[in-house]
Design the sequence.
């Protein structure tokens, strides 16, 4: 057995010699963080990242079957729900994952705001975080459009009507949003592009940047009433605090993140199992006017 | 063996460091060539951007006239006088993969004889499908409670104007409308007479003109409000 272990180490070293990714990754994982950050209040950011990965995975699986065409999208969802083994469950996982992601990102934002973690030197981390929230909402909206049903159709009409109010360029903006004169095939194609390529690309890039900055600047310490953040002394004080009370992020602080992420994933799986997928509601046929379009919860 | 150890001493040492030569003409020529290469790529990028931006802006650069055309809604007999009926048409501009989304509904109101009004289905507020309630003589929107009188003028709710109206004409006993584009508040739609703004106000004048049909329908109240 010992030789097997030795061979595994040799294989690792062979790759590590060429890639050199292992040691910086281990170093980053085990970097010292103030002991006060090992708290259940600090688990939302990592949970949001875990759900993002989960959404990418379930999204790829759905794309194996989904037909991004106005005439077939709705029936391909019906097919997923009724004819593909566990297709309904994958749709439910992706839909509930979306709701959980919006909720967790919002909770993360509230926590960061209440803890004053947006202050110097983490202002840019916060600003990027706000864009990440907007991108998350963008994913939720474009995802709702891909569920090409009545709500999606009239939701697009609402989007076009809102955009049409932009002064001067409202008209061209509506054309760009719809990809043509009416809500139709080209509209779904461009929302598919946004949902699958454009927004996730930007989202993943900015999440990487956001994480890099968290590593570079350190996780903000537990706030104290009356303690003012001074640009002159803060960095020094933070380093002193980390030195005095520091604990390695992995494993001393990260186990809470891991437990919370597992609970959230379990909650998504349970909701998906018991409540099932969202829609699709009626077919995207505008001549069926006996409908009361309702947006997903994030856009109510 | 230490994984952090470089494969061979020469591999990871940049040649410029070992050379340690002073600023020479060769180096300044290289710097110049590098700057030139940046400039070249900038120029290529700018040229490449023209077709890409043109492709992206394509839908917004289309002329309105190419998207709208006259569409036959059927013989006049389909629209009884004094009534407002739903009519569907296939949008003149479609793609083969549009499916049902290429079918567009509209409300046709035949006031009397050849006197018509054709309203877009989309609420002037946020584009939801308005429904006609004959008993209460109102168009109501299910989304945010926008309400319009029978002549399309605004009655109440969030819409800031009346319903969008299609241009219409009668050709050989058939009702034709000029359509092809989703009506929105965007300037291009409002500025043209095809989708005129109807001043808000009571619909008494047109209701009085209808005479008997108005009296017929006014018997019932507003029981048809959607659930």
Sequence:
């Amino acid at each position: 057995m010992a030789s097997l272990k030795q061979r595994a180490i040799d294989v690792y070293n062979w790759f590590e010699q060429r890639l050199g990714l292992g040691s910086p990754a281990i170093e980053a994982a085990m970097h010292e963080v103030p002991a006060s950050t090992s708290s259940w209040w600090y688990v939302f950011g990592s949970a949001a990242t875990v759900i993002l990965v989960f959404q990418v995975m379930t999204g790829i699986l759905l794309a194996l079957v989904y037909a991004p065409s106005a005439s077939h999208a709705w029936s391909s969802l019906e097919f997923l729900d009724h004819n593909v083994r566990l297709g309904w469950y994958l749709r439910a996982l992706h839909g509930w994952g979306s709701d959980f992601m919006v909720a967790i990102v919002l909770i993360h934002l509230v926590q960061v705001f209440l803890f004053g973690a947006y202050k110097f030197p983490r202002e840019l981390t916060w600003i990027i975080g706000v864009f990440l929230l907007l991108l998350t909402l963008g994913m939720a909206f474009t995802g709702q459009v891909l569920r090409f049903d009545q709500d999606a159709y009239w939701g697009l009409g609402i989007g076009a009507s809102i955009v049409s109010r932009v002064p001067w360029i409202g008209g061209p903006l509506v054309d760009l949003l719809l990809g043509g004169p009416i809500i139709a095939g080209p509209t779904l194609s461009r929302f598919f592009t946004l949902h699958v390529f454009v927004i996730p690309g930007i989202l993943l890039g900015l999440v990487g940047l956001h994480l890099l900055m968290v590593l570079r600047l350190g996780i903000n310490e537990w706030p104290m009433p009356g303690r003012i953040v001074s640009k002159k002394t803060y960095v020094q004080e933070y380093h002193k605090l980390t030195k005095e009370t520091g604990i390695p992020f992995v494993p001393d602080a990260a186990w809470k993140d891991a437990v919370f992420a597992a609970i959230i994933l379990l909650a998504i799986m349970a909701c998906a199992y018991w409540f099932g997928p969202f829609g699709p509601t009626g077919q995207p046929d505008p001549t069926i006017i006996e409908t009361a379009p309702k947006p997903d919860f994030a856009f109510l | 063996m230490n994984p952090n150890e470089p494969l061979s001493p020469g591999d990871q040492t940049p040649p410029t460091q070992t050379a340690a030569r002073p600023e020479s003409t060769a180096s300044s020529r290289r710097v110049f060539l590098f700057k030139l290469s940046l400039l070249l790529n900038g120029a290529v990028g700018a040229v490449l951007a023209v077709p890409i931006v043109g492709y992206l802006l394509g839908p917004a650069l289309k002329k309105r006239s190419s998207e709208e055309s006259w569409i036959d809604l059927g013989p006049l007999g389909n629209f009884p006088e004094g009534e407002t009926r739903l009519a569907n048409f296939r949008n003149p501009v479609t793609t083969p993969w549009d499916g049902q989304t290429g079918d567009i509904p509209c409300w046709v109101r035949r006031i009397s004889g050849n006197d018509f009004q054709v309203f877009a289905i989309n609420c002037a507020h946020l584009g939801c499908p308005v429904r006609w309630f004959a008993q209460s003589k109102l168009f109501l929107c299910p989304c945010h409670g926008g309400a319009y009188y029978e002549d399309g003028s605004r009655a109440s709710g969030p819409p800031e104007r009346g319903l969008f109206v299609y241009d219409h004409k009668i050709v050989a006993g058939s009702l034709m409308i000029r359509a092809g584009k989703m009506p929105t508040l965007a300037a291009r739609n409002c500025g043209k007479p095809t989708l005129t703004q109807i001043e808000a106000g009571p619909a008494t004048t047109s209701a009085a003109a209808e005479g008997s049909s108005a009296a017929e329908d006014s018997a019932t109240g507003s029981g048809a409000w959607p659930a």
About this structure: Chain B touches chain A through 48 residues (CB under 8 Å). The longest helix of chain B spans residues 25-61. The CA atoms of residues 153 and 199 of chain B lie 6 Å apart.
